[in-house]
Design a protein that fits this description.
The protein contains four helices and seven strands. The chain has 122 residues and is α+β, with helices and mostly antiparallel strands. Strands 4-3-2-1-7-6-5 form a seven-stranded antiparallel sheet, with helices on both faces. A hairpin with a 4-residue loop joins strand 5 and strand 6 (90-94). The radius of gyration is 13 Å and the shape is globular. The termini are far apart.
């Protein structure tokens, strides 16, 4: 596992990592060599459980769908909308062509993740 990816997942407990193992492996494979991982968060996406990855170049989600994976990437230059409902623990990130709908995310870290993204799209 890449060192930056390992550090970005350090806040996850063993069970969380176990249940998201497939999504984590696929998410790490999707990284580009020149990308730095800033944060990885276990989430419930509109399509099921997965992970949200925040890098220095983009945001993307990985969700295991039976035996395949759904990956959605949102480069910072294309993000035009981000909202967080920290009461419900939900988040929405959109571009003109794609969106990531997060139905459940850690309420405290959702605000931190939103700030990370806003700093890079401004």
């Amino acid at each position: 596992m890449r060192l930056d990816f390992r550090r970005a997942t350090a806040h996850m407990n063993g069970m969380t990592k176990f249940f998201n193992q497939g999504s984590l492996i696929e998410a790490e494979r999707f990284l580009k060599p020149d990308e730095q991982v800033l944060h990885v968060e276990p989430v419930n996406l509109d399509r099921g459980p997965g992970v949200l990855v925040v890098t220095d170049k983009r945001v993307y989600s990985a969700c295991q769908m039976m035996t395949t994976y759904e990956l959605k990437q949102l480069p910072y230059r294309e993000i035009n909308f981000i909202s967080v409902d920290s009461q419900k623990g939900s988040m929405r990130i959109e571009t003109n062509h794609n969106k990531v709908l997060i139905e459940a995310i850690n309420r405290n870290r959702s605000v931190i993740i939103q700030q990370m993204i806003l700093e890079r799209i401004s």
